[in-house]
Design goal:
This protein folds into 2 domains: about 5-90, Phosphoribosyl-AMP cyclohydrolase (Ubiquitin-like (UB roll)), CATH 3.10.20.810; about 115-205, MazG-like (Helix Hairpins, Orthogonal Bundle), CATH 1.10.287. The protein is α+β, with helices and mostly antiparallel strands. It is elongated, with a radius of gyration of 23 Å. The chain has helices at about 35-45, 115-125, 135-140, 140-160, 165-185, 190-219; strands spanning about 15-20, 25-35, 50, 55-60, 70-75, 80-90. Helix content is about 45%, strand content about 15%.
């Protein structure tokens, strides 16, 4: 952890803040902070920037409701730029886009993310595509999806029992896909799962600390 006094602000008292989505690291926006807006961001755990155009502070989401909940702030090696990792409540761009960076200059293959796969699956639920297996599952409904989750779970067990790593990986991937279809069908998001796992991690960490403390006292 570094002290904010170590940060280097430019001649206008500003430091660039690259805002990325927690989880998949997608860049949402580039904004600027001064010492006051950074202090507000740290206090509220919400992104607060300095508007170079309006010459004032602005709390992201104050008027739109699209707050950005700060998870982590990291400075670069020169201490003159920040990466702000957030959980957004809605679009980052004032034009309504999820990200301000949606205008390709040079295109390459997009890296795989669970969030992108989930978005694709969810899209097949709302906009059915002919010949799509995912759309077929949604058309058949919950019972069919649950049946496939059960079948894939069994296939994972069989592959693992046989000691076939490649086949186990293949079947786990199938299971993950069908579980994500189930999530989309029932309105569960990847963030819901992450939050549940994170809460368990915190609880496990606390229990471990308390156990170590009691063992120390008992010695």
């Amino acid at each position: 952890m570094i002290n904010t006094d170590e940060l280097v602000f430019d001649e206008n008292g500003l430091i660039p803040a690259i805002v990325v989505r927690n989880g998949d690291g997608r860049v949402l926006t580039l904004a600027y902070m001064n010492r006051e807006s950074l202090a507000v961001s740290l206090e509220k755990r919400l992104t607060c920037f300095y508007s170079r155009k309006r010459k004032c502070l602005w709390l992201k989401g104050e008027t739109s409701g699209n707050y950005q909940h700060i998870v982590k702030i990291t400075a670069d090696c020169d201490r003159d730029a920040l990466v702000v990792r957030v959980e957004p409540d809605g679009p980052a761009c004032h034009l309504g886009g999820e990200s301000c960076f949606e205008y390709p200059v040079l295109e390459g293959e997009e890296p795989f993310t669970y969030e992108a796969l989930y978005d694709l699956i969810k899209g097949r639920k709302t906009e059915r595509k002919e010949g799509s297996y995912t759309s077929y599952l949604f058309e058949k409904g919950l019972d069919k999806i649950l049946k496939k989750v059960g079948e894939e779970s069994t296939e994972v067990v069989v592959a693992a029992k046989n000691g076939d790593k490649a086949e186990t990986v293949y079947e786990i991937a199938d299971l993950c896909y069908h579980v994500m279809v189930l999530m989309a069908q029932t309105g569960i998001t990847p963030d819901d799962i992450k939050k549940e796992l994170a809460s368990r991690h915190v609880i496990d960490k606390k229990v471990k600390q308390e156990t170590m403390k009691s063992e120390t006292v008992g010695q």
